[in-house]
Every structure is written in structure tokens, then in C-alpha cells.
């Protein structure tokens, strides 16, 4: 299955997720070989995930995609019964978005590499793994741009580099370069290269341009080459730091690393940038994916003001700031109605219906 996934150019994370679901599927059916099972066993496993494990719809669909790939691509089972499997309906959820003040409060609680990564997610719209796996050559200080290599679905894109982030990255990269020089003296300083680029350019593994912007603290020995290799900072370290910073900032919202990306897109739309530009910066394949951020703008998309803001709940003798606010265009003039008592919803001693119609 791993060979088939590599043949389809699937990412390593996708391969690990698919193989993990196949393992769970086999263990759920007490070690039976998948070739001996079929649609009833697959449906039973998916029902177990939905009813007993109570997983999200996207998780259930990922498990189904892994099993469909197993039977269709690896075992060569006819696709008849696979096409009849029902996918879970994903609910429509609104993304969590921070205000600019809230984002600043969380960022003030961060320090070091997690703070820089959070600034890249908020200032450039990067995903967490895109920021963690950033290489030195992909940061263009002169053009104030960041090149995302092998993003989601293997697509590259160009996004902005904020001036404030660039100013903080300069001393950070100076410290990383000093570490790299010490590694070279100790006959280390290697990094993993994409695909088979190491055979095309063996010296690139120690080249400064290919080094990680956010290297891990410790290296490891590569089993294939027996070299000491340094990986990039693990994403879990940033996730823990962001969660701790949100608690320290007193946030009542559930703030994750992806919340910075949601806030980046929403604040750009609030600033008046067109949605196609935001789509390109985020790397969305379809503009409909970017459309989710139009529903969380502060002005509700149409500048509608809530009727609750027009109520006078304070002392009626005190003039209200909204006393002369427009109340709509249904009445074109003032209507004078004599005072009286309201009985069963009717005002007694009021003018006749014809008199009211003339006043309107």
C-alpha cells in the first residue's frame, strides 16, 4: 500500500494516515485479511467509528477514503460495491476568528520560534506545517515574499512577508546560521532534501540555502546514510505554545494555530481586499473555500445594524445618541395620535381609520 501511495505522489502524512486506518480496520475485525472481507465489514467499521467512537464526519470520510484506496488500488477489488458506500455529511461550521486586539494579546504571550511561526501564520496566511518546514531560500527579504513549496495537494504559491515579521526574522536567521556553521565544523549540518534531489545535488544537504528556518533542537542519525541530520521544529511544540499563550491571554475562544490563518483571511477581507486576492494568498483551489470568511465579517456582509442597538433601555428622559437615527422608510412623515389606554392591543380614543390614512 505504501508503494502504491508513493506511485500516486501522495504526501508522507497522507500515507501514514491511510496505513493507520487500514491497521485499525484489520484490528477491529480481529486480524482478518482485508481480502477476506467486503462491504459488510467496511460498513460495520464505519458505523463503529460514527456511533461508538463518535468521530467527526471528516475523520470518518478519511477512513473511508483509505479503505477505498486499499480495495481499489492495492487489492484490485471490483469497484462496484465501493461506489455504493455512503460518505458522512460534513456539517457547515464557522471558523473561529480573533480580532486584531485578541491576536496581539496572544502573540505577546509567545516567545522564540513559536512566536515567529505564529506571526507567519497571521501575517502571511501560512498553515502550521508550511511555516515549520520553511527553508532559508524560500524567504525573500528583498521582495517581501514567502514561497510555499509543496503545500497542500503539492501546490506551490507565493504570499506576502510582513515588514514586522521580516525584522524579527533577521536576528533569528543570524542565530540559526551561527548554529549551522558550528555543525559544519563538527562534520554535521545535513538536512533532508525533497524527493531524489540529494542524488542530483549531494552538497545541497549542507548548503545554507536549504537549511530550515526553524530547526529542531536535536538531530538524529539517518538510518539510510548514517549521517547526523537535523529536522525542522515539530509542529506539536508550536501547538502547545499557542494553547498556553491563549490561556495566559485570558481568551474565551478556542484558539489554535489555524485560528491565525482564519484571522489573516478575515482581516484582509475587512480591509477591503478582493476575495480572489485572498484566495491566491491562502492557496485555495476554489474560491468557494475562501467564501467561508465572508460570513464572519464584523459587518455581517451587508452593514446591517441590529434592531437591539436602536432600543432605548435607559431612562427615557435622557436623550439617546440614536434619537435621530433613521428608523426605516415605511413612514414618510410623523403621525399624531391622541393619548389613550391600550386594551387588547387596541389604542382607545385614537383617531378613526380614515383620519389615520390621511395623516399617512
Task: Kindly describe this structure.
Strand 1 (139-140) and strand 2 form a beta hairpin. It is built from 14 helices and 7 strands. Helix 3 packs antiparallel against helix 4. The strands form 3 sheets. Strands 1-2-3 form a 3-stranded antiparallel β-sheet. A two-stranded antiparallel ribbon has the order 4-5. By secondary structure, the protein is mainly α. Helix content is 43%, strand content 7%. The longest helix is centred in the middle third of the chain and has 23 residues, at 163-185.
Structural class: mainly alpha
How much of the sequence is in beta strands?
A: 5-15%
User: What's the gyration radius in Å?
Assistant: 29 Å
**Number of beta strands:** 7
State the shape.
globular
Helix content: 40-55%
Can you give the mean pLDDT?
Answer: 84
Number of helices: 14
- Trace the largest sheet across and list its strands: 1-2-3
Give the biggest sheet: 3 strands, antiparallel
Features:
mainly alpha, 3-stranded antiparallel beta sheet, 360 residues, two-stranded antiparallel sheet, globular, single chain
Q: What's the layout of helices and strands?
A:
Blueprint: H1 2-7, H2 12-28, H3 39-51, H4 57-74, H5 100-108, H6 112-124, H7 128-132, E1 139-140, E2 145-148, E3 157-160, H8 163-185, H9 197-200, E4 215-221, E5 228-232, H10 235-248, H11 257-270, H12 275-282, H13 287-290, E6 342-343, E7 346-347, H14 353-359
Antiparallel strand pairs: 1-2, 2-3, 4-5, 6-7
Amino acid at each position: 500500500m505504501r508503494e502504491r501511495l508513493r506511485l500516486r505522489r501522495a504526501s508522507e502524512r497522507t500515507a501514514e494516515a491511510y496505513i493507520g486506518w487500514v491497521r485499525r480496520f484489520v484490528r477491529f475485525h480481529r486480524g482478518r485479511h482485508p481480502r477476506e472481507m467486503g462491504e459488510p465489514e467496511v460498513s460495520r467499521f464505519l458505523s463503529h467509528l460514527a456511533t461508538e467512537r463518535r468521530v467527526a464526519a471528516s475523520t470518518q470520510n478519511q477512513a473511508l477514503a483509505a479503505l477505498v484506496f486499499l480495495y481499489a488500488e492495492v487489492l484490485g477489488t471490483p469497484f462496484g460495491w465501493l461506489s455504493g458506500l455512503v460518505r458522512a455529511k460534513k456539517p457547515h461550521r464557522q471558523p473561529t476568528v480573533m480580532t486584531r486586539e485578541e491576536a496581539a494579546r496572544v502573540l505577546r504571550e509567545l516567545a522564540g520560534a513559536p512566536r515567529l511561526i505564529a506571526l507567519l501564520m497571521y501575517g502571511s496566511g501560512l498553515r502550521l506545517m508550511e511555516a515549520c518546514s520553511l527553508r532559508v531560500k524560500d524567504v525573500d527579504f528583498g521582495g517581501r515574499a514567502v514561497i510555499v513549496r509543496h503545500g497542500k495537494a503539492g501546490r506551490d504559491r507565493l504570499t506576502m512577508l510582513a515588514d514586522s515579521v521580516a525584522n524579527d526574522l533577521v536576528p533569528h536567521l543570524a542565530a540559526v546560521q551561527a548554529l549551522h556553521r558550528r555543525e559544519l565544523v563538527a562534520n554535521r549540518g545535513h538536512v533532508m532534501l525533497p524527493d531524489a534531489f540529494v542524488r542530483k545535488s549531494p552538497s545541497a544537504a549542507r548548503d545554507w540555502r536549504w537549511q530550515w528556518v526553524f530547526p529542531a533542537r536535536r538531530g538524529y542519525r539517518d538510518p539510510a546514510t548514517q549521517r547526523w541530520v537535523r529536522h525542522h521544529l515539530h509542529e506539536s511544540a508550536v501547538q502547545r505554545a499557542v494553547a498556553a499563550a491563549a490561556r495566559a491571554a485570558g481568551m474565551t475562544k478556542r484558539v489554535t494555530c489555524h485560528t491565525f490563518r482564519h484571522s489573516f483571511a478575515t482581516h484582509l477581507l475587512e480591509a477591503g481586499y478582493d476575495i480572489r486576492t485572498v484566495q491566491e494568498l491562502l492557496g485555495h483551489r476554489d474560491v468557494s473555500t475562501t467564501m467561508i470568511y465572508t460570513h464572519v465579517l464584523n459587518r455581517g456582509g451587508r452593514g446591517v445594524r441590529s434592531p437591539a442597538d436602536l432600543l432605548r433601555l435607559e431612562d427615557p428622559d435622557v436623550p439617546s445618541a440614536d434619537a435621530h437615527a433613521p428608523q426605516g422608510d415605511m413612514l414618510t412623515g410623523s403621525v399624531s395620535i391622541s393619548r389613550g389606554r391600550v386594551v387588547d392591543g387596541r389604542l382607545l380614543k385614537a383617531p378613526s381609520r380614515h383620519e389615520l390614512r390621511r395623516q399617512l
